[in-house]
Amino acid sequence: MKVLITGFDPFGGEKINPAYEAIKGLEDNIGGAEIIKKEIPTVFKKSIVELEKTIEEEKPDIVICVGQAGGRHDITLERVAINIDDARIPDNEGNQPIDEKVFEDGENAYFASVPIKAMTQEIREGEVPASISNTAGTFVCNHIMYGLLYLIDKKFPNLRGGFIHVPFLPEQVLDKGNVPSMSTENITKALRLAIEGALKYKEDIKVQEGKTH
User: Fold this and answer.
1) CA pair distance 158, 152, nearest whole angstrom
2) Whole-number Å distance between alpha carbons of 201 and 203
3) What is the phi/psi pair of residue 31, to 5°?
4) Closest to 112 measured CA to CA, from 55, 71, 75, 153
5) Which distant-in-sequence residues (6+ apart) come within 8 Å of 185 by Cβ?
6) CA 43 – CA 106 distance, rounded (Å)
7) pLDDT tens, 163-203?
8) Exactly one of 21, 65, 165, 196 is catalytic; which is it?
9) Residue ranges of the chain with pLDDT lower than 70?
10) Given 78, 122, 143, 196, which residue is catalytic?
């Protein structure tokens, strides 16, 4: 069993990206599965190309992509990715697509194929705050999640995949005022627990995680 977990490189002048910083702290084997760690560029299109190349090389059973969601207070497991790029700001190479499809032949949306509710429960039982999110945004995080699920739909039907957003690190919010953050250690712990949940559950659990808005 192989699990590929990816994190973005530092974005927008930041010295670190909590996504890959936390990934680096993961063990090479979790729950009997080999853990493959990969840093990918915070760049439209190129990120998906890198992801597909790594999937073809490593042949994982599960792929979990991780990105930063500055301002969120907990670990958020994304439920759905939509077929739209609508960038409020440029990516790391200056690309700023507006109202463009990620893939012309893709579905309007794809849902995560990992057991996000079970994974969320595992993280909470490990005493790290976590919840389900119903929007991955319209920037590179949604782009890579959609790209992953598109690849599963079109090329890798036996693969399971999903996306996790993580908060800022404490050192990133020193000059940002009252903005939530989480330590690298807790983010790493949450990712480990999420992987354990994905390995443990083939089918998701049925518990209430809905939101009114």
Assistant:
1) 7
2) 5
3) 60, 30
4) 153
5) 25
6) 20
7) 999 999 999 998 888 899 999 999 999 999 999 999 999 99
8) 165
9) none
10) 78
Torsions phi, psi for 51 (to 5 deg): -65, -45
Neighbours of 193 (CB within 10 A): 23
CA distance 49 to 57: 12
Annotated catalytic residue 104: no
Amino acid at 73: H
Of the residues 21, 141, 143, 196, only one is catalytic, namely 141
How many CA atoms are closer than 13 Å to the CA of 92, on its beta-carbon side? Answer: 18
144: enclosing H helix or E strand: helix 140-154
Q: Which of 132, 4, 113 is nearest to 56 (CA)?
A: 4
Which three-class secondary structure state does DSSP give residue 207?
coil
- The greatest distance separating any two alpha carbons of the chain, rounded to the nearest whole angstrom, comes to 45
Active-site annotation holds for 65: no
Report the pLDDT value the prediction gives residue 140, as an integer from 0 to 100. 97
| pLDDT confidence of residue 154 | 98
Distance CA 91, CA 185 (A): 27
C-alpha–C-alpha distance, residues 92 and 36, integer Å: 24
Whether 78 is catalytic? yes
Give CA–CA dist 177/151, Å, rounded.
40
